[in-house]
């Protein structure tokens, strides 16, 4: 049950990864330096492009590297509204929950797709809790400037016997 709860909530926290020290060895994505922090007052004609770059970096940290702490430190520095019914409110609750879930070496994530626009973004990926428990996940985020401030998620279990072989990805 705890594993299922983690899977369901993993997108609610969209996301991120373990130690800030681990991020120093990771090449920056989108031209962001390792100690970069978003700006909730960012405006201008290229804001949408900046938000897309922010989401791509957040997803890389969170989904690919499972470095929740760095992802949240960079892209969720303040207010974080959570719509997942199984997760606590706020940034600290998300970090604690996701970090604990990713601590299990059987938890893996693959097949990531990132897209967004008009102040929102989504990350779609495959989350395996163990070889028998696999989910298709979509994390949906709202931006304020270049910061992620709100989250929704959707999970669908993959059983492996679906009629449509490309149903999820």
Automatic annotation (TrEMBL):
Under the heading SUPFAM superfamilies, the entry gives: NTF2-like (SSF54427)
Mind telling me which Gene3D superfamilies this protein's record contains? Answer: 3.10.450.50
What keywords were assigned to this record? Signal
Leader sequence segment: 1-24
Which domain of life does the UniProt lineage start with? Eukaryota
Protein name, UniProt field: SnoaL-like domain-containing protein
Source species of the chain:
Psilocybe cubensis
Taxonomy, top ranks, is: Eukaryota, Fungi, Dikarya, Basidiomycota, Agaricomycotina
